[in-house]
Design brief:
189 residues, elongated, 70% helix, 7 helices, 0% strand, mainly alpha, single chain
Length: 189
């Protein structure tokens, strides 16, 4: 299947393309994604801090437990979140000259995050603490770019819809559901 970022000539409607709806849907979608991002970062901060503290304290049992929890969260939440963004959230913006380089950079950050998760999985002690801190720091920077640059660009761009891009994707909005009014469904946020 073609990556929408790599195939700008495809004319079919894709996730992220605008459909009838309203500015309220876009604002709710933006708020839902930002809220989900904040919750993810808060959880990652806590897990990374627990692992770093356990390593620093020399508590092997706490380190093992914190390491397992963090690796599991990365595998079940962080990496699926990143992969879910790549088509629907990045696709429309990646086809524009104004955001193409931003999207390419953010895709590269996803690869760095995935590599750090692999590094974390196979590490212990100080190496695990460094990997955890690196994941936290890169993810925080990545979310800041999405929240301040990419999503406002999508919301402000005619022909794109953040609400449509994230509709039904709990990896992007958590348990929040975003529907456009123009699709015959109500908006629940």
């Amino acid at each position: 299947m073609d990556n929408p970022v790599d195939n700008p000539d495809s004319a079919a409607a894709r996730p992220g393309d605008a459909l009838p709806g309203g500015a309220d849907d876009e604002v709710r979608a933006l708020e839902a994604v930002e809220k989900h991002h904040a919750a993810m970062l808060k959880r990652l901060d806590a897990m990374a801090a627990a692992l770093i503290h356990a390593v620093t304290a020399g508590n092997a049992v706490a380190e093992h437990d914190a390491h397992e929890v963090l690796v599991e969260w990365c595998e079940t939440e962080l990496v699926p979140h990143a992969l879910a963004e790549e088509g629907p959230l990045y696709g429309g913006a990646g086809r524009t000259p104004e955001a193409r380089l931003l999207v390419e950079g953010m895709l590269a950050e996803h690869q760095v995050i995935v590599g750090l998760v692999e590094q974390l999985r196979g590490s212990a002690g100080v190496d695990a603490a460094v990997a955890a801190g690196s994941i936290r720091n890169i993810f925080a920077l990545h979310l800041d770019k999405e929240n301040r640059l990419l999503m406002p660009f999508i919301v402000a761009s005619p022909g794109m819809s953040l609400a449509r891009a994230v509709e039904g994707l709990h990896e992007l909005v958590g348990e929040t559901h975003v529907h456009q009014h123009g699709t015959g469904r109500g908006t629940t946020v």
